[in-house]
C-alpha cells in the first residue's frame, strides 16, 4: 500500500524562473526502501523538502497515509544533506535533545540512549565535541544517530553517507538496514544517494530522476533477495546489468540536457 504519494508535483522557488521539480509523480509503499538517484541539481533535495513539509509545492498533491503533507511532523525524520546539527550543542546533547523533543526519553535514560546511539555510529569518544570540532563525515554520523533517535515511521535521508569514508559507509549502510527492518515493523525510507552501488545494495526500488526540473525517468525494481551479500552481489550478472542501465540512463539524460543548453546558447 502506498504510504507516501506525490501526484504531479511541481515546485518553483520564489524568484526562480525554472522549476526545481516538475510533473513529479511517485508512490512509496509502507515499509519500502526507495533510493533516488539523479544528476546534481535535479531536485532531489527539493523533493525531500517537499516530503518533509518544509517547502510547499507550487502545484500537485503530496500525501502521507492519504492526508496532505502541509507541515513537518514527528512521523518523518529527516537527515539533511548539510547535517544541520545545532552548533551550540555537543554531539551527545544534539541527540539527547532529539530524544527529549520527540518524547522518546528524558533525563538519565535519554543520556544513556544517546550514548548508545553515538556508539552505534562509532563516535563514542567524540560525545563532548561540538559540531565545529568534528570532521564532515563525523558530523554526518551524528546527524544519522540523531535521526535514529527519533524512531519515526518514515525516514527522509539526503545523501546521508555522502561525506563518510568508505569503511564507515559500509557499516552505516548495514546500520540503516537494521533501522529499516525495526522490530519486524519496517520503516519507510526515501534515500537520496549519488552512489549507484549503495542504491543497489540497499533499495527495494530505485527511482532515476531526470536532470532538473526533477521528475521520474524510470523506476527500477531491485530483484536481489535479502540479506544481500556485497561480495556475491557485485558478481551477479543482473547487478552488472542494472548498474550499467542506470549509468547509461543518467549519461544519456545529462548529454541530452547539455546539447539543449548548447543549442539554446547558439553554440
Ligand atoms: N532554497 C532554494 N531557493 C532557490 N532555489 C533553490 C533552493 N534550493 C534549491 N534550489 C534550486 O533548485 C534546483 C534543484 O536543487 P536541489 O538542491 O533540489 O538539487 P539536488 O538534486 O539535491 O542536487 P545535488 O545532487 O547537487 O544535491 C537547483 O536549480 C537549485 O539551484
Ligand atoms: Mg541535494
From TrEMBL:
Residues 4-236 form the ABC transporter domain. CDD domains: ABC_NrtD_SsuB_transporters. Its main location: membrane. Pfam families: ABC_tran (PF00005). It is a peripheral membrane protein. It comes from the Bacteria. The keyword Nucleotide-binding applies. PROSITE patterns: ABC_TRANSPORTER_1, ABC_TRANSPORTER_2. Keywords: ATP-binding, Cell membrane, Membrane, Nucleotide-binding, Transport. One of its GO terms (molecular function) is ATP binding. It is found in: Cell membrane. The keyword Nucleotide-binding applies. This is Nitrate import ATP-binding protein NrtD. The gene is nrtD_1.
